[in-house]
Amino acid sequence: MGTLREARVVDAPIAAVWEVLADVSVLPELSESTTDVVVDGPLREVGQRFRQTVRLAGRRWTSDWTVLELDEPRRLVVDGSIAPGTGYRLAEDLEELDDGRTRLTVSATYELPFGPLGRLAGRLGVERRVAEELAVVVRGVAARAEAAADATATRRRPGS
Question: What are the chain's domains?
């Protein structure tokens, strides 16, 4: 089993960051590999499911995800799988900072099939790809939340 972590301070309040995390329908805009997400609204309860389709190495893969933990607006944990023996879990944690910013930490834990062979494959390429994708998505979440916070601040200014 491998674990990767990506953290970033987002120049937006915790509520703005949470709204982006809970709205997984925006994943195709945040991730070049995600081509489609099928979900019934924002993630709001444990047990809620969604389906994500990604394109990697010229192939399409479909992942079914389930919300395992949800503590709005602080923590969201989802569990996914492509095939038997392959699984991954994303834990997305938010910490409200004193200056109106938010620390976003995403931990990805994954398990590949085939024992030692799967671990070797992970070290050779899958782990690097997951790390790159994780960084891209965290940057995308931050940018989207910051843009939403900026738009809200602009609407609140007198004369805007």
Answer: 2-155 (3.30.530.20)
